[in-house]
Design a protein that fits this description.
With 480 residues, the protein is mainly alpha-helical. It has one domain. It is built from 20 helices and no strands. Helix 4 packs antiparallel against helix 7. The model has no long low-confidence stretch (mean pLDDT 83).
């Protein structure tokens, strides 16, 4: 794929960005309402249930979605046949795993710290076949860089919590509202993506193609397990060591930050993976595109992370309410460390696009080896110590990722640091001005004014750098 496809990539980013912007305008509204209708305990229960469902989803997908996106097929017939095999295998596995969860729902509920809620886990797992119905369809859209259709589906899915989850939360005041809302979102995605897709599943199956897919995807699936462990091992430890109240504070803090940062990451990561996958055999263009993405994303995500840390109390009050203020420290620290972690995480997309998920598995495994004992020890010393340790231990993952990218991909850590240095310098000025302005007042209107001033100051400083100004101007023009 020649790099003159840059216009197609930018167009894909445009629709992906639009989807994320509109979704993130809706998502905070949902969060603001639900956080005031439901207690942290309800969010804690759903977080532990999601731990089980998300683990099962790894095996239902089995890496088939990445195979469809990344694999170079011989022709359209080969692609169609392989896609059908992926679809039916995905769907069959989802029902098998749903049955296994239903059969062992009681011990599973006890294991994650929710004894007596096995039936809730069974019902929540209805998302598995719904995810399977949409997973391969979504892969086809991403492979073709048809993010405009994904944008429409994302918008419909973003509306569901407003018309389903919030009314149920008001009426039930229970975690059931969140469970039913999640199932509804997955159902909408499965229906609309299937209806709009040019590709329709037909009955075709080949054990030979399935074997080929599994041999291609096995490390991708192992990688997904390692990522799951990184994302949920701490939730598991907190769930059995502390109350569901603290699980709710802990997980919701991460989710709140993610709602802000994924405005950038969810819009760019799928496009980056699809684009890099087409440049596997052109190292020069591969590195150029990677560094360009990193610089552009850094210009956006670094000030966001610093801003979350600086205005953490205000963000917590606005998005969650005063009953969640105990979580503001973790929200700020998680936002700050997320900025750099996200930029280095793009290295994982480079591994996958080159068909080297083993590298990501190595990075995640080395992180888990450190993460598990750190969280296990920190949780014994209270919630604030846990939050500090969990955020700072991400530095280890950053160092590991940089080392692997240098040794294997020949991407210089110093070059990547210089790539984002102007954004870091401008963000430091933003932080200083933000802290100074908060010394005068912490009122609602003053916080809004301070955030606006800091954003303008950051933009003015970043535009003094020639490369940053050129990239930002060019990107904005292409979005028009």
């Amino acid at each position: 794929m020649p790099i003159n496809n840059g216009h197609k990539i930018v167009k894909a980013i445009k629709w992906s960005v639009f989807a994320e912007i509109l979704a993130k305008l809706i998502s905070p509204i949902t969060t603001i309402v639900l956080a005031r209708l439901l207690t942290p305990d309800a969010f804690g229960i759903v977080a532990t249930i999601a731990m089980i469902v998300s683990f099962a989803e790894i095996f239902t997908d089995a890496g088939f979605q990445k195979y469809v996106i990344q694999h170079e097929f011989a022709d359209e017939k080969d692609r169609d046949e392989s896609t059908n095999v992926a679809f039916w295998s995905n769907l069959a596995l989802s029902f098998v795993l749903w049955g296994i969860i239903a059969a062992f729902n009681k011990p599973l509920a006890t294991m994650v710290g929710n004894p007596g809620l096995g039936h809730v886990i069974t019902i929540a797992s209805a998302s598995l076949p719904l995810q399977a119905l949409s997973s391969i369809q979504m892969a086809n859209y991403k492979r073709d860089m048809n993010f405009k259709t994904l944008f429409k589906a994302r918008m419909l899915g973003a509306i569901v919590p407003i018309v389903v989850t919030i009314p149920l939360a008001y009426l039930m005041r229970s975690y059931w509202a969140l469970v039913i809302g999640t199932i509804s979102v997955n159902a909408v995605n499965a229906i609309v993506l299937s209806i709009w897709s040019k590709w329709k599943p037909r009955w075709y199956f080949s054990w030979i193609k399935l074997q080929k897919m599994l041999s291609f995807s096995i490390w991708s699936m192992i990688e997904s397990v390692s990522i799951w462990l990184t994302n949920y091992i701490d939730i598991f430890i907190v769930g059995i060591s502390l109350s569901q109240y603290y699980v709710g504070l802990y997980k919701t803090s991460m989710t709140t930050v993610a709602q802000i940062t994924t405005l950038i990451t969810a819009a760019t990561t799928p496009v980056l993976f699809s684009a890099l996958s087409r440049l596997q055999d052109n190292h020069q263009e591969f590195e150029y595109l990677f560094m360009k993405f990193q610089k552009l994303v850094g210009m956006l995500i670094i000030p966001i992370g610093v801003g979350i840390f600086c205005f953490r109390d205000f963000i917590t009050l606005i998005l969650l309410g005063d009953q969640w203020l105990e979580a503001s420290y973790f929200i700020g620290l998680w936002g700050l460390t997320s900025a750099i972690t996200i930029l280095v995480h793009y290295g994982s997309e480079a591994y996958r696009s080159l068909g080297k998920p083993k590298l990501s598995v190595l990075a995640q495994t080395l992180h888990i080896v450190v993460l598990w004992p750190v969280v296990q020890i920190a949780v014994q010393h209270g919630f604030e110590t846990l939050c500090t340790a969990r955020a700072l231990v991400r530095i280890e993952l950053i160092l590991v990722q940089l080392a692997i990218m240098y040794i294997v991909l020949k991407l210089s850590p110093w070059k990547m640091i210089k790539n984002i240095l102007p954004s870091c310098m401008a963000a430091c000025v933003l932080f200083v001005f933000g802290k100074l302005m908060l010394e005068f007042s912490t009122s609602f209107l003053w916080n809004i004014f301070a955030i606006s001033v800091c954003a303008i100051i950051y933009l003015c400083i970043i535009c003094t750098f020639k490369d940053e100004r050129r990239i930002l101007t060019k990107f904005i023009r292409k979005l028009q």
